[in-house]
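Reviewers of the previous submission asked for a worked example of the structure-prediction workflow described in the proposal, so we include one complete record here. The input consisted solely of the amino acid sequence. No template or homolog information was supplied to the procedure at any stage.
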Amino acid sequence: MSHSCDKCQKTFSFKFKLLAHGCRDRSNFAHECYLCGKKFKTKAVLEGHYIIHTGEKPYECDICQKRFNYKSNMIKHKRIHTGEKKYNCKYCDRRFTDPTDHKRHEKNHYEEKAFKCKLCEKSFGHRTSLKNHYAIHTDEKAFKCQVCEKEFRQLGHLKDHMKTHPSLDK
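From that input alone, the workflow returned the following structure tokens.
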């Protein structure tokens, strides 16, 4: 399916590229989204932003065909298939596929852990981590799989479990 500009007839393979085309007002060099008014430094970044509005997912994993709105998300996803863990913790032996998870983990080694469990004295750097920890003591399983009804104490465990339902992962 192609999308063409009403003013100059140029065609684009994805709607977000047409929206970023900018034929509407060439004087606006600030690269402003005409849908929400948000401004961007470059046309390329504005083009990527339009995906939020269109919901398009132009990048596809060649292994499982799952689609993504950003190329960087697809590249990160592909590490699931390869098992690549290129981010190493400099404080321990743990390795990570995702740089954000890596940084979050390393903070645990040096950041003050101000949130202490009143039942076992274990400390956490974030209030939500402490809240999740309390589920261990209460045996509460607040996260339930909508497919097979299996229950989990932590959202991350449910997300990992959802990967076992491949038909939902697309």
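Residues 52 and 120 are 44 Å apart (CA to CA). We consider this example representative of the routine output the project will generate in years two and three.
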